[in-house]
Amino acid sequence: MSRRPRKVMAQMNVVPYIDVMLVLLVIFMVTAPMMQTGVDVNAPDAQANELKSDSALEPLTISMSKEGQYFLDKNSPVSEAQLVQYISSQLDPKAERAVYIKADDTATTGHLMKAMAAAQRAGAKKISILADPVPAKPN
């Protein structure tokens, strides 16, 4: 009886790679909700009623640093032209979507007015300035 030598089958075992990918997927799924979007802004304190949106659409929020830089939902600043383009692309002509501007409390009024003018040029009808609520005084 002659025996034939068995052919070696060169196969790559992908199970460890799938395990690593699943672990990475779980890590990203757990950490994604914890990620902070936007830029850290110290909004001024103000005593006012809470904003109520009568629209079903979530309002657009623009953050503005003390230097007058505009930030959308990411950490890189955008120019005024990019801001106008972004707002106009997010607005629906059939539904009024509010635009909220959250400016740093040390930002100049001129920078804030430029942001409001940019939102108005983009077609926004409802523009509001966000502020932090004044803490209640202990009795």
From TrEMBL:
Keyword Transmembrane annotated: yes
InterPro entries, sorted: ExbD
UniProt subcellular location: Cell membrane
GO biological process, one term: protein transport
Membrane topology field: Single-pass membrane protein; Single-pass type II membrane protein
Domain of life: Bacteria
Any GO molecular function: transmembrane transporter activity
Keywords of this entry: Cell membrane, Membrane, Protein transport, Transmembrane, Transmembrane helix, Transport
Keyword Cell division on entry: no
Cellular compartments per GO CC: plasma membrane
One Pfam family from the record: ExbD
Family: Belongs to the ExbD/TolR family.
Protein name: Biopolymer transporter ExbD
Organism expressing this protein natively: Candidatus Thiocaldithrix dubininis
